[in-house]
Design brief:
The chain is an alpha/beta fold. It has helices at about 15-30, 50-55, 65-80, 105-130, 145, 155-175, 190-195, 200-205, 215-225, and strands at about 10, 30-35, 55-60, 85-90, 135-140, 180-185, 240. It has a 7-stranded parallel β-sheet, with helices on both faces. The longest helix is centred in the middle third of the chain and has 29 residues, at about 105-130. The structure holds nicotinamide-adenine-dinucleotide (NAD). Nicotinamide-adenine-dinucleotide (NAD) binds near residues 17, 37, 38, 140 and 142.
């Protein structure tokens, strides 16, 4: 515990699902965590129950697809804490359809959120991390970015793009000791996957050697590893956390 004491962390899409688990895990280990999300929890809704951890977490409204919204949120963090140690680009959406029925708006929405959003947030923290000569950027990809998926051309393309972004940033930032990696989950039990039909869920689960979906905390623990000193010599990598789905 206390591994991330005094570290300043930003997690996009941090108020729900995998993002919330990452926020909770890093705050539990002592970090100040800024959960940047489009939809913030209602005022009285309990975000994280433990009072001592709650004090380490601040939610800021942001739309990762908007340059001005992203820059404003990052500025707010910098005004507060003067540094940024870890950025987790986790905000993501799906707008699934077979290609012949996939409209331009759904293509753009997914690419803008999942890929452009990660670019805008990474660029917004880069100068600060370069000045510090240290930083970690962790992109939350998806296994379908590596293997594709029928009905998810937009989503798969956005997640494949994140792999290219991860490797390019890793090369561009390495000399400043900023490590950039990607965590690619398979099937995780969140509201995002809750909307899949039972047939889609069982087809996914049938192909997973471990025969179950991941909990959000099982993704958060890999993010914590990549955010920690235990991974000081890892950059530009994609780590599949998928119960063996792709191998
Ligand atoms: N659930 C899965 O099985 C699974 C599998 C692989 C990858 N992922 C990836 O993990 C990440 C989190 O997924 P999840 O299952 O927790 O999803 P989720 O839908 O439960 O949560 C996504 C969060 O992102 C936020 N968000 C969406 N658009 C935003 C925007 N424009 N600006 C700011 N915030 C925005 C949402 O408000 C929400 O809080 C996503 O990038 C997703 O693609 C999920």
């Amino acid at each position: 515990m206390g591994r991330f004491k005094n570290k300043v962390v930003i997690v996009t899409g941090g108020c729900r699902g995998i993002g919330k688990a990452i926020v909770s895990r890093l705050a539990n280990e002592g970090a100040y965590v800024y959960a940047l999300d489009y939809v913030l929890p209602k005022e009285n809704e309990v975000f994280i129950e433990d009072e001592s951890i709650k004090a380490l977490i601040k939610c800021i409204q942001v739309d990762v697809t908007s340059e001005s919204s992203v820059n404003k949120a990052i500025e707010e963090v910098l005004n507060d804490k003067k540094r940024i140690d870890i950025l987790v680009n986790n905000a993501g959406i799906t707008r699934d359809n077979l290609v012949l029925r996939l409209n331009e708006a759904d293509w753009d929405a997914v690419l803008n959120t999942n890929l452009k959003g990660a670019f805008l947030c990474s660029r917004a923290v880069a100068r600060t991390m370069m000045g510090q000569r240290s930083g970690r950027i962790i992109n939350i990809g998806s296994i379908v970015g590596s293997i594709g998926n029928a009905g998810q051309a937009n989503y798969s393309a956005s997640k494949a793009g994140l792999i290219g972004l991860t490797k390019s940033l890793a090369k561009e930032f390495a000399s400043r000791n900023i490590l950039v990696n990607c965590v690619a989950p398979g099937f995780v039990l969140t509201e995002m996957t809750d909307k899949l039909t039972d047939e889609q869920k069982s087809s996914f689960l049938g192909n997973i050697p471990l025969k179950r979906g991941a909990s959000p905390s099982e993704i958060a623990s890999v993010v914590a590893f990549l955010a920690s000193e235990d991974s000081n010599y890892i950059t530009g990598q994609v780590i599949h956390v998928d119960g063996g789905l792709a191998m």
